[in-house]
Amino acid sequence: MSDKKKFTYKDAGVDVKAGEELVTSIKDIVRETHGVEVLSDIGGFGGLFRLDFKKWKKPVLVSSVDGVGTKLIVAFKAQKYDTVGQDLVNHCVNDIAVCGAEPLFFLDYFSTGKLDQKIAFDVIKGFSTACKENNCALIGGETAEMPDIYKTGEFDLAGTIVGIVDENNLISGKEIKSTDVLIGIPSNGLHTNGYSLARRVLFDKFSINDKPEVLDKTIGEELLRIHRSYLHIIRKLKAIKGVKGFSHITGGGIEGNTKRIIPKDLKLHINWNSWDIPSIFSLIQDIGNVPDESMREAFNMGIGLIAVISKDSVKSVTSTLDKMNEPYFEIGHIK
User: Fold this and answer.
1) CA angle 99–164–243, rounded 5-degree value
2) Cα–Cα distance measured from residue 86 to residue 300, given in angstroms and rounded to the nearest whole number
3) Any idea where the domains of the chain sit in the sequence?
4) How would you label 209-248 residue by residue, b for 16+ Cβ within 10 Å and e otherwise?
5) Is CATH 3.30.1330.10 what the domain over 16-169 is classified as, yes or no?
6) Multiple choice CATH, 181-334, 3.90.650.10, 1.10.1040.10, 3.40.190.10, 3.30.565.10
């Protein structure tokens, strides 16, 4: 009989049984996101979504994929995992909503060194919460255990959203012209961008539970504020004549993202003094002695969504936002 040591998959760091138990534990919260369009249950080889294309004259599918970035490191430090899943869904939803699309379904990728079922459950519960809030289905995902890539307690996330819009209602920004106005809708913090710079500056001076005088929350709570979904605002505003484009302010900041939707021969004029910069950004800039240019490139600076509208539609847009109790700022124009 051979005396060689026997190695199993579990010995190599991959616990198949733990993965199966996770799938069982999340079935109920995932099913809560399903409507009659979802034909498959979690755990299958593919997610099945039945779509009635008769509702659209010229249906166009719109998709986007993204991650949460190094915001995850803040979650590791705070040992709080139920918000980053919401961040990811809302980020992806915003990216297709600015094109005029309605979200249909979402799929996630969760990769980790060693699967902790409690952590994974919290993350996936966040996916489910945000999917319900955005009226889209969580129809599938992948959980990968890779001990040689991630340290214990670490994981990474990615997500894919698929939505639909009638081709006639696509929002492309091609009608934007000089003198059009920029209406900014506030963010509630960093959202999911600029965390490499923020962590480098803040954690050199503060711990995760410290509460600087200029903030009303601890560093951890402030940095883990959930990335807003702007879907409900976009739904209202896109129906108003003269609303020509939307910009979701993520990596690259206000200018970098809004340039993506305006014709090449036009430029942005941003009045950086037209809104109050939230305290978290001022704190980062002051402590790190970060130049304005770097701040504006890395962060949203308190503006999470921009609507580009004609001068004639300003009153209609602002009146609609007032009725929704949504704050806004006129932050510049097209020139």
Assistant:
1) 30
2) 18
3) 16-169, 181-334
4) eeebeebeebbbbbbbbbbbbbbebbeebbeeebbbbbbb
5) yes
6) 3.90.650.10
pLDDT digits (tens, 9 = 90+) for 139-174: 999 999 999 899 888 999 999 999 999 999 999 999
Cα separation of 270 and 302, whole Å? 14
Q: What is the dihedral of CA 48, 53, 55, 57, to 10 degrees?
A: 150
1 has pLDDT over 60: no
Per-residue pLDDT of 222-259, as tens digits, reads 999 999 999 999 999 999 999 999 999 999 999 999 99
Q: Which two tokens stand for residue 70?
A: 């190094």
Q: Identity (one letter) of the amino acid at 91? A: H
CA–CA dist 37, 219 (Å, integer) = 41
- Amino acid identity of 277? I
pTM of the model: 0.95
Measured between alpha carbons, how far is residue 179 from residues 124, 222, 261, 294, 308 in Å? 45, 36, 15, 27, 10
